[in-house]
Design a protein that fits this description.
Arc Repressor Mutant, subunit A, 235 residues, 8 helices
Length: 235
C-alpha cells in the first residue's frame, strides 16, 4: 500500500468514526503507518464517548453513520472544542458542503479516496490548526479573537465563529480595506484551490455575511471585489 510515512512532529491522536468496519480498519492502518495514534468508533454515540475519553487532536467523521450522524456529532463537539474535524461522505453535492460548514467542519472528503490522499489532507488540516495562535487581531472597529473564536464589531456583542470562519477572517483582518484574492484565501484556509474548495469558499463567505452584516445582500463589512476576491472593511 502506498502510504505517506513521514512522521508528524509529535504523535497525534486521531479519532475515526465510521460504521464501515473495513474502511475504518484501512484508514486506521494508513494513519498508524504515517505515525499517528488512532482510536475508533462505529456510530455517533460511541464517537462522542471516545471523544470525551480520548481527547483526540483531530476527528474524522462519516456523515451517514448510525445516529447521531456525523453532522450531529460535529455540532456537539463544536459546542466545547475547536479540534480540527474532517467529514467523510459518498455525497458531494453543494447542500452537503453547506451542511458540513454549518455544523463546524474544517474539511470535507468524498469517498472513495486513496490512503495517500487522505494522509495528505490530514497533515494539511493539522498544520492549519497549529498555525492559529492564541491572540487577537484588531482592525479599526473590528476585533477578532483567535483564542475565543469570536469577532466583535464596535460595541456590539461578540459573534461566535467556527474554526473555518476564524481562519478566513484571520487573513482578511490582517489586510483591512485591501482585497485578498480568492486564490490566496483558498490556499490559506484549505491549502489548495480545487473546484470543491472554490464552491465551499462562496458558501463560507455567505455564512459569514449572515453573521456580520445587517443586510447580507448589500454587505458593508465583508465586501466582494468583482473578479478578484474579498476585503474586510473596518471603520
Amino acid at each position: 500500500m502506498d502510504v505517506d510515512t513521514e512522521p508528524p512532529s509529535r504523535s497525534l491522536n486521531i479519532l475515526i468514526a465510521d460504521d464501515d468496519a473495513d474502511l475504518r480498519a484501512l484508514i486506521g492502518f494508513s494513519l498508524r503507518q504515517a505515525g499517528f495514534n488512532v482510536c475508533s468508533a462505529a456510530d455517533g454515540r460511541s464517537a462522542l464517548q471516545a471523544f470525551a475519553t480520548q481527547r483526540p487532536d483531530l476527528v474524522l467523521l462519516d456523515v451517514n453513520m448510525p445516529p447521531p450522524n456525523g453532522l450531529e456529532v460535529c455540532v456537539t463537539i463544536r459546542q466545547s472544542s475547536t479540534v480540527p474535524i474532517m467529514m467523510l461522505s459518498v455525497r458531494d453535492q453543494e447542500d452537503d458542503l453547506v451542511a458540513a460548514i454549518d455544523a463546524g467542519a474544517d474539511d470535507y472528503v468524498r469517498k472513495p479516496f486513496s490512503p495517500r490522499a487522505l494522509i495528505a489532507r490530514v497533515r494539511a488540516l493539522v498544520r492549519r490548526g497549529t498555525n492559529i495562535n492564541p491572540a487577537s487581531i484588531d482592525a479599526g472597529n473590528i476585533r477578532l479573537d483567535l483564542e475565543q473564536h469570536t469577532l466583535r464589531i464596535g460595541a456590539a456583542p461578540p459573534l461566535s465563529l467556527t474554526p473555518l470562519e476564524v481562519k478566513a477572517l484571520q487573513l482578511l483582518a490582517t489586510s483591512p480595506g485591501r482585497t485578498v484574492t480568492a486564490e490566496r484565501l483558498l490556499n490559506h484556509v484549505w491549502g489548495r484551490a480545487t473546484l470543491r474548495e472554490r464552491r465551499t469558499l462562496k458558501q463560507l463567505i455567505y455564512r459569514l455575511r449572515k453573521k456580520l452584516e445587517d443586510d447580507p445582500a448589500s454587505p458593508r463589512v465583508l465586501q466582494t471585489t468583482p473578479g478578484a476576491g474579498y476585503k474586510l472593511v473596518a471603520e
